[in-house]
Structure formats: structure tokens, C-alpha cells
Design goal:
Helix content: 25-40%
Number of strands: 0
Radius of gyration: 19 Å
Distance between the termini: 15 Å
Shape: globular
Largest sheet: none
Structural class: mainly alpha
Number of helices: 8
Length: 282
């Protein structure tokens, strides 16, 4: 679970769509695979419990994940899918004590619901953006439909063509982006899906830029102007955001921010919290 400042009540837009590990059966630690890399110290197959997962579904090394080579765990968020699958879809029935078929189905359904919850996160934020008012009615319809799908039975969720639904919702999110960025000052830069890995963008003017899906891994964005930029799907792992201004940047999620580097001078939108490790020097 990512680390954030304090234990204050989180009233940011979409805050209810954040993982609650205490209400989940450790699904991300079992259902998902990971490979030995800079983010994970070991390999793990999908459906296999992580060796650090305790029998009470808690992480045995939660407080030292970064030091032990599991940074990937600290920047992951299921957007609330874990507690829904655990407590609603499967009615609080544990994968450990149930029949193998239940565990298999639970692990199959979890990634589907995670994708639906990510869409709910974007749609919820889109409805807070005044510039997107012309498509608010369509956004509300998409939000209701996505919520209806997320409420499906395990069988319905397993059979869902989630990619097709994402494509339909994405068309609305693209229109939302166009409307919002049209109101941003300066020249609108299109950097969609751009390969900017390790790019030197110190002090760059990226206000109102389209950075959807851009690869900004280890990019130097120190002091960059990212006000009003669309950051949906941008890969910010190890990107340097010290003194960068992300005021009004939208479709920026907590996992993206947690994966980046920043400092006290980084200005963030209200939709995300400042990661604790930025100030802890980790």
C-alpha cells in the first residue's frame, strides 16, 4: 500500500476509489504476477501468494518494502477493487478457506474490477472539471454503466469484454481532455505516447500538453510547467518533479505520483496526496 502524509480524512475527488487493504484478502499479493526487476526483488507467478504475505492477508515486510527491493508494491493501488471483490463480489468469503474454484475465479475477476475502478476514478474526476460540462451528461451515463458492470457477479465479470468498455469510455475521456486543455494558456503540445525516457525537460513549458501514455521514466522535469496537462497513463517512474508545477494537471493518479520523485517545491493538483517518501528521502 502506498505511503502518504498523515492519517487525515481524504476528501479528494475519487478518494473512495482507493485501496483499503484492511478490507481485502491480499488479492494484489496473490492474483498478480511480477518479475525480478528494479521494482521487485523476486519473480512471482499469477495466482501464487507472495512469500511475504501472512496468513492474515497482511504484508510481513510492509514497513521495509523499499529497503527490501519491493518498491513496486509501494506504488501500486487497486483503486478500491480489492475490497469490492473481497467483500461484495464474493461476499466476504476467503480464497484461503474456500474451494480451489473460488480462489481461481477471484484471481480472475480482480484484474477486471481493477480496470473498471480505474475508469470510475477517471470519470469521477472528469465530472469535477467545469470545462468538461458539455459532456457531463455522457460522463454521468458512462459512470453509471461502469458502476453497474463492477457490481456484476463473478461469472459476469469473468465474461466481460473490459477492453471494449475501456475503449468506449476513453472516447469520452479524450473529448474531456480536449475541452479542458482548450482553456489552458500557451501553445498546446502533443506528446501523446511519446518516448521521453530520460529526457532533459528541466524548466520545460508543458502547460496544457497532451502527455497521455507518454514514457517519462527517469525524465528530468525539475521546475517544469505541467499546469493543465493531461497525464492519463503517463509513466512517471523515477521522473524528477522537484519544483515542477502540476497545478490543474488532470487524470493524474496516486500510483503515478508515488512512482515519481519530488520535493517540497513540487506543486500537485488536489486530486493526489504528497508521497511521504518524497520528504523521507527514500
Amino acid at each position: 500500500m502506498p505511503e502518504h502524509e498523515g492519517d487525515r480524512v481524504d476528501d479528494r475527488p475519487g478518494a473512495e476509489l482507493r485501496g483499503d487493504c484492511g478490507s481485502c484478502f491480499g488479492l494484489c499479493c496473490v492474483a498478480l504476477p511480477f518479475a525480478r526487476s528494479a521494482d521487485f526483488a523476486v519473480d512471482k507467478d499469477a495466482g501464487t501468494p507472495c512469500a511475504n504475505l501472512r496468513t492474515d492477508h497482511r504484508c510481513g515486510i510492509h514497513t521495509t518494502l523499499r529497503e527490501r527491493g519491493f518498491t513496486g508494491c509501494t506504488v501500486y493501488d487497486c483503486f478500491g477493487a480489492g475490497q469490492r471483490v473481497s467483500q461484495v463480489t464474493f461476499g466476504g468469503r476467503d480464497w484461503r478457506t474456500g474451494p480451489p474454484e473460488r480462489a481461481r475465479r477471484m484471481f480472475e475477476v480482480f484484474p477486471v474490477v481493477r480496470q473498471l475502478h480505474e475508469l470510475l476514478r477517471y470519470l469521477t474526476e472528469a465530472l469535477t472539471l467545469p470545462a468538461a460540462r458539455p459532456v457531463h451528461a455522457d460522463l454521468r451515463g458512462a459512470l453509471a454503466e461502469t458502476e453497474r458492470l463492477a457490481e456484476g457477479t463473478p461469472e459476469e465479470l469473468a465474461a466481460l469484454d473490459v477492453a471494449a468498455h475501456r475503449q468506449r469510455v476513453n472516447a469520452l475521456l479524450l473529448r474531456t481532455s480536449e475541452l479542458v486543455r482548450a482553456g489552458a494558456g500557451g501553445r498546446k503540445k502533443n506528446r501523446r505516447n511519446a518516448d521521453l525516457m530520460g529526457a532533459r525537460l528541466k524548466g520545460a513549458d508543458l502547460a496544457g500538453a497532451d502527455l497521455r501514455g507518454a514514457y517519462l521514466i527517469a525524465a528530468d522535469l525539475t521546475g517544469a510547467d505541467l499546469r493543465g496537462a493531461d497525464l492519463i497513463g503517463a509513466d512517471l517512474r523515477d521522473a524528477e518533479l522537484s519544483d515542477a508545477d502540476l497545478t490543474g494537471a488532470f487524470f493524474l493518479t496516486q500510483p503515478q505520483v508515488d512512482a515519481a520523485r519530488g520535493g517540497p517545491g513540487t506543486r500537485l493538483p488536489d486530486s493526489v496526496a504528497r508521497p511521504v517518501h518524497w520528504t523521507a528521502g527514500r
